């Protein structure tokens, strides 16, 4: 059990899946619970679709360029918070890293792609 | 349901109207399964601490002191 | 023993890779215009890049994060996005300038049409990056860049006025043409403290999985590599001063720059100079294109790395390919490579604080760095250079306008 500053230690940090694969940054955090109740971080929000709420109109443009997807990763999927945020499952299982997965078949068509 | 980013930058005031600065961060308690919000990190000092220029304050406003969360500000019990 | 050998090789490659098109253009021009009077700026620039790189390397070794990971975490998404956009624009300008330099040196070497050579060069780089391992790329371009030593030989053969050269290391401001002089001060500092070099260095540190045990090595690498590389800049400025000053020759083309080696050393000098320029600027192009890809990938959280296979970092791979094509496109418009270089250097100076400041903050942050945070020396230097960088960043564009991009 540790005390952490959440924006400092979690927000905007790199996410790694259980195999150490980079699959996004923590673009925002979902919090449930209000005054007088226990407030908990319930999910990590990832993807260009989350950027408009972080950076106004530049965020909207960047989001559009990036494809506008957003993925919700329930906090229970987080194994540990170190320098990076490490997840219990693989990226595919959680719907992360889809941009890389969709592009990979095209890159693999070029000879030498596995060098 | 709220997001952390939407809470950041909101003004933090007491019920009597005293300004405590703006919300820069949330203090939380991390366990193997959960991350619970335990306090608010606020004010001008909060910003300099956040950037590591000044040493971190040890006394964020406890979450239990939060009275009301409004669209543009967060109201806490009088200190 | 072989470890020392490996380190020595690494340093050699770093020295050869130190010089890029910005250094070539600004150092020779500075010599041609002001003789030895600007020598004192060079050590300031070299120490500046050492300080900046050392901090980034240390941050990479301790926190396992490269520059843009750090920038986004430290200053948040919107400020980070602003820094990213500025850095990518500047990176692209620099890349175009480097590619233009490569095309010109190829043209001077073999006489074929410029645009064809540009396409060939870009294709060549793409294939080299795609296929060759990174150690080999660094070695080939680094050692090739060592051919630039011909400028050191040329400088000595031109019998420079050693007294004036020595005096040049004493800081002062020229009495006439002060604005142009200050423009060169800014340009020389910008050419020495190139941001893409720092992004590249720190990303490399993360890829090679540096740990705190590597900090000493990182420090030595930075000091020796950049220190010796600074020696090249001295040679370039000396050549410019000894050969061009007083003859009214302004090195507006790379060909004129290569003359600096041809006049004292003949055809061999010219050939070595052109080959040296080709490899140094070519290596710089590759470093620059990778930096652009690193920054975007790190900011967005994608998989990245030259040690990942091309297929395992698809978006990162696509990014460097797109950047190469865009860079080539800019050069194809026929913009003059030397002018583009000056713009690229000036704009990168303006953008320098955007990444320097977050790194300085992180290097001081105990929660990130533990006991490896900046000590007093690092903070004194870091603070001094913060002032230097801010002053230079703020005065760059006004000086550029007032001197009409150095044309006066």
Topology:
The complex is a heterotrimer of chains A (115), B (79) and C (408).
Chain A: E1 2-5, H1 6-9, E2 14-16, E3 22-25, E4 28-32, E5 39-46, H2 52-66, E6 71-74, E7 78-81, E8 85-87, H3 91-94, H4 98-108
Parallel strand pairs in A: 2-8
Antiparallel strand pairs in A: 2-3, 4-5, 5-6, 7-8
Chain B: E1 2-3, H1 4-7, E2 11-14, E3 19-30, E4 35-42, H2 43-50, E5 61-62, E6 66-69, E7 73-76
Parallel strand pairs in B: 2-7
Antiparallel strand pairs in B: 2-3, 3-4, 4-5, 6-7
Chain C: H1 2-18, H2 21-34, H3 41-63, H4 67-75, H5 77-110, H6 114-131, H7 134-145, H8 149-157, H9 162-168, H10 178-192, H11 195-207, H12 215-244, H13 254-300, H14 314-332, H15 337-364, H16 366-369, H17 376-402
DSSP helix fraction of chain B: 10-25%
Strand tally of chain B, please? 7
Element order, helices and strands of chain A? EHEEEEHEEEHH
CATH fold node name of chain A: SH3 type barrels
Please indicate the count of domains of chain A.
Answer: 1
Low-confidence stretches of chain A: none
Quaternary organization: heterotrimer
Shape of chain A: globular
Structural class of chain A: alpha+beta
CATH-scheme architecture of chain B: Roll
Briefly, what is this?
The complex is a heterotrimer of chains A (115), B (79) and C (408). Chain A has 115 residues and is an alpha+beta fold.
Protein architecture, described:
The complex is a heterotrimer of chains A (115), B (79) and C (408). With 115 residues, chain A is of the alpha+beta class. Chain A has helices spanning 6-9, 52-66, 91-94, 98-108; strands spanning 2-5, 14-16, 22-25, 28-32, 39-46, 71-74, 78-81, 85-87. Chain B has a single domain (4-76), classed as PRC-barrel domain (SH3 type barrels, Roll). Chain B is built from two helices and seven strands; from the N terminus they run βαβββαβββ. A six-stranded mixed sheet of chain B has the order 5-4-3-2-7-6. Chain C has one domain (2-402): Amino acid/polyamine transporter I. In chain C, helix 5 (77-110) packs across helix 6 (114-131). The longest helix of chain C has 47 residues, at 254-300. The radius of gyration of chain C is 20 Å and the shape is globular. Classes of the chains: A alpha+beta (115), B alpha+beta (79), C mainly alpha (408). Chains in contact: A-B, A-C, B-C. At the A-C interface, strand 3, helix 2 and helix 4 of A face helix 4, helix 5, helix 13 and helix 14 of C. Strand 1 of chain A pairs antiparallel with strand 3 of chain B.
């Amino acid at each position: 059990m540790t005390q952490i500053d959440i924006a400092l230690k979690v927000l905007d940090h790199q996410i790694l899946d259980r195999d150490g694969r980079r699959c996004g940054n923590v673009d925002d955090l979902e919090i449930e619970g209000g005054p007088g109740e226990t407030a908990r971080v319930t999910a990590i929000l990832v993807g260009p679709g989350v950027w408009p709420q972080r950076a106004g109109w530049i965020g909207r443009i960047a989001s559009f360029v990036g494809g506008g997807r957003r993925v919700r990763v329930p906090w229970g999927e987080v194994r540990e918070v170190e320098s990076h945020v490490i997840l219990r499952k693989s990226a595919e299982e959680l719907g992360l890293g889809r941009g890389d997965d969709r592009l990979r078949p095209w890159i693999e068509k070029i000879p030498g792609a596995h060098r | 349901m709220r997001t952390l980013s939407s809470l950041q930058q909101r003004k933090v005031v007491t019920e009597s109207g005293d300004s405590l600065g703006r919300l820069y961060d949330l203090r939380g308690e991390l366990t193997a399964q959960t991350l619970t919000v335990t306090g608010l990190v606020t004010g001008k000092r909060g910003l300099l601490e956040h950037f590591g220029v000044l040493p971190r304050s040890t006394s964020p406003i406890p979450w239990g002191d939060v009275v009301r969360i409004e669209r543009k500000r967060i109201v806490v019990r009088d200190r | 023993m072989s470890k020392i050998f490996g380190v020595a090789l690494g340093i050699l490659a770093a020295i050869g890779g130190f010089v890029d098109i910005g250094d070539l253009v600004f150092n020779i021009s500075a010599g041609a215009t002001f003789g030895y009077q600007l020598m004192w700026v060079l050590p300031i620039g070299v120490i500046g890049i050492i300080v900046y790189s050392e901090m980034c390397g240390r941050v990479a070794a301790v926190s396992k994060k490269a520059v843009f990971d750090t920038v986004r975490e430290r200053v948040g998404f919107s400020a980070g996005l602003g820094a990213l956009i500025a850095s990518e624009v500047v990176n692209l300008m620099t890349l175009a300038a480097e590619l233009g330099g490569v095309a010109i040196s190829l043209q001077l070497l073999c006489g074929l049409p410029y645009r064809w050579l540009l396409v060939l060069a870009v294709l060549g780089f793409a294939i080299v990056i795609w296929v060759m391992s990174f150690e080999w790329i660094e070695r080939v371009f680094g050692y090739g860049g060592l051919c630039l030593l011909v400028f050191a030989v040329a400088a000595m053969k031109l019998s420079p006025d050693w007294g004036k050269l020595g005096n040049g290391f004493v800081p002062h401001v020229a009495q006439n043409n002060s604005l142009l002089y200050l423009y060169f001060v800014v340009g020389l500092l910008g050419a020495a403290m190139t941001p893409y070099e720092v992004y590249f260095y720190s990303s490399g540190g993360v890829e090679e999985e540096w740990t705190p045990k590597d900090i000493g090595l990182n420090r030595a690498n930075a000091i020796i590599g950049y220190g010796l590389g600074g020696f090249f800049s001295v040679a370039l400025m000396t050549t410019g001063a000894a050969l061009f000053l007083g003859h009214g020759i302004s090195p507006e083309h790379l060909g004129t720059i290569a003359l600096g080696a041809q006049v004292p050393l003949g055809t061999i000098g010219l050939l070595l100079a052109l080959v040296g320029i080709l490899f140094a600027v070519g290596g710089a192009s590759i470093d620059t294109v990778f930096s652009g890809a690193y920054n975007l990938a790190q900011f967005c959280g994608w998989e990245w790395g030259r040690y990942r296979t091309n297929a395992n970092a698809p978006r990162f791979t696509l990014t460097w390919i797109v950047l190469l094509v865009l860079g080539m496109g800019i050069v194809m418009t026929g913009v003059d490579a030397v002018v583009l270089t000056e713009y690229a250097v000036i704009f990168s100076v303006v953008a320098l604080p955007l990444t320097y400041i977050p790194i300085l903050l992180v290097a001081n942050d105990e929660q990130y760095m533990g006991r490896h945070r900046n000590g007093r020396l690092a903070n004194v230097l870091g603070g001094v250079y913060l002032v230097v960088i801010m002053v230079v960043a703020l005065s760059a564009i006004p000086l550029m306008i007032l001197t009409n991009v150095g044309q006066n």
